Amino acid sequence: MTTTAARNRAILWLAGPAYLWLLATVLLPLAAMLYFSFLTVSPLSGTPEFTLAHYRTFFTQEVYLVNAGRSMMLGLHVTLLCLAFGYPAAWVLARVIKNRWREAMLLLVVLPFWSNGLVRTFSWTMVLTDYGLIGRALHAVWPGAPSIEIMNSYPAILVGLTHAYLPYVVLTCYVSLQGINPSLTEAARSLGASWGQVFLRVILPLSLPGIIAGAMLTFVPVMGSFMEPRILGGTQAIMLGTLIENQFTAAFNWPLGAALGFVMLGAVFLLMALFWPLIRRHVQGVAA
Amino acid sequence: MGSVDLQSVTKTYGATRALDEVTLTIAEGEFFGLLGPSGCGKTTLLRAIAGFVTPDSGRILMDGQPVERVPVNRRDIGLMFQNYALFPHLNVRENLGFGLSVRHRPKAEIAARVEELLRLVRLEGFGERKPRELSGGQQQRVALARALATNPRVLLLDEPLGALDKNLREEMQIELKQIQRELGITTIFVTHDQEEALTLSDRIAIMRAGRVEQIGAPRAIYERPATVFAANFLGAANLFTGMVEAREGGLTRVRLEDGSLVTTRDEAAPGRQVTLAVRPEKMQVAAPGEGPNRLSGTVSHEVFTGTAVILRMDFQGRAISVFAQNDGGPLPRAGEALTAAFDPANAVILTDPAG
């Protein structure tokens, strides 16, 4: 009896602060935003009344639907790019590089985390142009070099966001690849599998949890991103994320901004629900 | 189908010679054991045969064909890992069918073969289970069946029973031997467990520091060890050093360093310094007295094992053991005098000096 009570007390003291913090800083403001999204005006700036108009706005005004679609495509593209670059790097980290070198390489991967996001994004503006350091150096060495000017375009957004989210994908894929027993590869080889078959039938399915985790950690925030599109995107900057930001910082229409945010959250939940059977089937077999 | 020939196979890692001019011939259908302490190169040799290790020099032939340049997946081998290496995301049926599936065999053929394998290792009804839902012994049987699925010409086993507890291991030894006999598949296995090597193998190669120390049938190696290492690694041995005096009447007379006289049937030139090995169970407690092959001393301590008593006695500065059957008769105790005797046929002259 006493031990159970002591255990429960310990759990309360250990986990309590974190949950209280989350409650105070995330759930309460989120609940407030949810409440705002059903009001005509923000309670801070007038007398509000209940309305569904903001949600109706999203589904009736083309600009929101189109940009929601663009944001989803952006999320998809960045996620695919992160996987294309991150998965092979994670493989090398997990299987090829050993000991101290591995630690050093992991540190390099994590480095973008430690730099300020705004500084990181602005530094790209000096790289993605012909008039930046790299562009000038390239043209000095090779006068006939093709232009590397991609500033203020969709590709520039992709570069900035891929850079920002690559560490998540590398780390989640690294963890799941590292957890695969190397003798499974040898077993598959001894049973006659080519390297391609080893990858498709053993490595890929066993590292799927890491791929899925990395993809979710990338796709969701990229869909709502506004800083990178605004700084790097030029005329391509308008995304659902920047539209939401606008409502809060420029139009001061908090209820509409909140409603758009919750529509996006709903879309994310919907996507998860669609993919859940696939995720569960693969994660089940692997977590042994 | 399934002979393996190793000719002067050498592999170095930095300054260490993991394999040093290993030459071995393993016949079709043979159950061949590679026995040795850890680091002796036995696992490297197995991995070289499998194709995971490329020798620096030497040849590896299967059925007379060189295979050094054949990649693992085309070597037509079955390999069983010590940790089984079952695919955790596949069920038993899919694990067993993996080899045929990557060879793009028809589904019906795979299904039929999997059924056959499940029967072979007595796991009918377990086909839908995931590896983690099986006991250690069952996982071991799945691993064996998976290695056999494609009817490989050589079966390679890396410490096949190492992860099982004692009772299960003995049971699996019998089962493994039975399956191997039934299929007649050439089998090479690695072990550090001398009992396992003796029980399973048709022939054993004792390995030490990358070299093959001795090759032979278990009984032949046990009864006639060639070197001090072989004598000590496979069973226990009492070692005596002395000088050959003469050869007469079919016996070689050896004067030991303390002056006592022993004889052996083994031949050696007079004047040669030799080391003799006698197994503890080949020494008997004898009546006190002088004469050849009688060694006297004081029992330093005794170990009671139930069926026998192992008497330890200091002789020539080495501890020697006498294995006395617990037949109810009186046995000397610690501190008492002991005379041990042996038959000249049971004293083996080793090729290298005792260290």
Automatic annotation (TrEMBL), chain A:
Keyword match Cell membrane: yes
Pfam families in the record: BPD_transp_1
Principal location listed in the UniProt entry: membrane
InterPro entries: MetI-like, MetI-like_sf
Membrane-protein topology: Multi-pass membrane protein
Transmembrane segments: 12-38, 74-94, 106-134, 154-177, 198-220, 256-279
Keyword match Cytoplasm: no
Swiss-Prot/TrEMBL keywords: Cell membrane, Membrane, Transmembrane, Transmembrane helix, Transport
ABC transmembrane type-1 domain mapped to chain residues: 68-275
Cellular component, GO annotation: plasma membrane
GO terms under biological process: transmembrane transport
CDD domains per the UniProt record, alphabetical: TM_PBP2
Domain of life: Bacteria
Subcellular location: Cell membrane
Family according to the record: Belongs to the binding-protein-dependent transport system permease family. CysTW subfamily.
PANTHER family in alphabetical order: INNER MEMBRANE ABC TRANSPORTER PERMEASE PROTEIN YDCU-RELATED (PTHR42929:SF1), INNER MEMBRANE ABC TRANSPORTER PERMEASE PROTEIN YDCU-RELATED-RELATED (PTHR42929)
Name the record gives this protein: Spermidine/putrescine transport system permease protein PotB
Gene of this entry: potB_2
From TrEMBL, chain B:
PANTHER family assigned to the protein according to its UniProt record, in alphabetical order: SPERMIDINE/PUTRESCINE IMPORT ATP-BINDING PROTEIN POTA (PTHR42781), SPERMIDINE_PUTRESCINE IMPORT ATP-BINDING PROTEIN POTA (PTHR42781:SF4)
Protein name as annotated: Spermidine/putrescine import ATP-binding protein PotA
Cited SMART domains: AAA (SM00382)
Gene3D superfamilies named in the record: 2.40.50.100, Nucleic acid-binding proteins (2.40.50.140), P-loop containing nucleotide triphosphate hydrolases (3.40.50.300)
GO BP terms, alphabetized: putrescine transport
EC number: 7.6.2.11
GO CC annotation terms, alphabetical: ATP-binding cassette (ABC) transporter complex
General function of this protein: Part of the ABC transporter complex PotABCD involved in spermidine/putrescine import. Responsible for energy coupling to the transport system.
UniProt cross-references to Pfam families, sorted A to Z: ABC_tran, TOBE_2
Catalytic activity reported: ATP + H2O + polyamine-[polyamine-binding protein]Side 1 = ADP + phosphate + polyamineSide 2 + [polyamine-binding protein]Side 1
Entries under NCBIfam families matching the protein: potA
Organism of this sequence: Pseudogemmobacter humi
Top-level EC class: translocase
